[in-house]
Amino acid sequence: MVSGRGRVYSWAVTYTRTQSDPGPAEPHVLVLVQLAEGPRILSNLVECVVDKVRADLPVELAWVESKDAGPRPVFQPTDASHPKG
User: Fold this and answer.
1) 70 lies in a domain?
2) Which long-range contacts (CB under 8 A, 24 or more apart) does 71-75 make?
3) How many domains are contained in the chain?
4) Phi, psi of 51 (to 5 degrees)
5) In a domain, 37, yes or no
6) Is position 85 within any domain?
7) Which of 5, 22, 25, 51 has its CA 20 to 30 A from that of 37?
8) Nearest Cα to Cα of residue 59 among 13, 5, 2, 3
9) 51 within some domain
10) What pLDDT is attached to residue 80?
11) Is the pLDDT of residue 81 over 70?
């Protein structure tokens, strides 16, 4: 059993746009999270201002609905560590 808490070890921001949406590209933050128990996991970071992502940012596990495969695990900043945006 793991706590679902960890810290951002590394990250990358990609910008994607669908062919049906001519608006500006949306940022997606891919993070490598160092879990409190030791292992690292690759996931997405949500509920976070892209410019505020940093190494060692405290994060916690969250779940989002996927159109294709049901709920999927993502991470979000802990309430005390970062303004959500």
Assistant:
1) yes
2) 73/43, 74/43, 74/44, 74/45, 74/46, 75/6, 75/31, 75/33, 75/43, 75/44, 75/45, 75/46
3) 1
4) -70, -10
5) yes
6) no
7) 51
8) 5
9) yes
10) 61
11) no
